[in-house]
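Hi R.,

Quick one: here's the HNH endonuclease sequence you asked about.
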Amino acid sequence: MGQRVLVLNASYEPLQLISVRRAVILLLQEKAELIEAAEAQLRACAFSLDIPLVIRLVRYIRIPRRLKLPCSRRGVFARDRETCQYCGSQPGRAYLTMDHVVPRSQGGGTSWENVVTACRDCNHRKGGRTPDQANMILLSTPRQPQYLAFALLGELERHDVWRKYTFG
Ligand SMILES: [Zn+2]
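And here's the predicted structure, written out as tokens:
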């Protein structure tokens, strides 16, 4: 079963998605408490258990600053507040693009530090050049967001029950 369970830190900050099986183990070991469950139940020989949708860790887990978060389109747009990082316009998500600051053709990778939100016009104007080469200025220096939930954004929006945990 491909169903996933959202794990919240003790502080209610979303941490990650895990399998139902792993979530049940955490619950049985009393390392986590059940926050939201599905209507259906898991049945075993001696007991039945609500299928968890959201669990919360009993003990607070410190997030290492250097933890690498996957860089996603949704996450980059959210980090940049859906604002073009060159001209400051907010044309709406459908008109935004992900721009590689150092273009891939010049060896730039897809990372939080090298990808910014850009409107179509600015992306087109910049083309396959760096900001310097295109004589364009970035409004801010792109960094990996500190808030872990950014990395989960796309996933959290898939499930009604999870959505409300997106931004505390
Ligand atoms: Zn722009």
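The chain has a mean pLDDT of 83.

Cheers,
M.
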